[in-house]
Design goal:
Blueprint lengths: L11 H17 L3 H15 L1 H4 L1 H8 L4 E6 L2 E6 L3
Antiparallel strand pairs: 1-2
Helix pairs in contact: 1-2
Length: about 80
Amino acid sequence: MKHVPHLPQSLWEEHLAEVEKMLPYLVAAGHYKYVSCLPHYLEAMRSLPTLAPNIYREFKDGNSEQVTSCRMHTYSWRNLL
């Protein structure tokens, strides 16, 4: 299994392909919530070029980082919608 990369190099299509490849492993591991959500995530993300071209362009440019503050710590997670 390959590590799903973060997107600093604008590897948006590669990210989606790797997420899709993880589905059988998630089924085997019993992560059914991920299995039920990931197809919807992939469909939504693959429809961005036609439904939301501006958002798609931002993802392609590597601008998908969200900063989340939790109590006293601040985390920076990639690929978080």
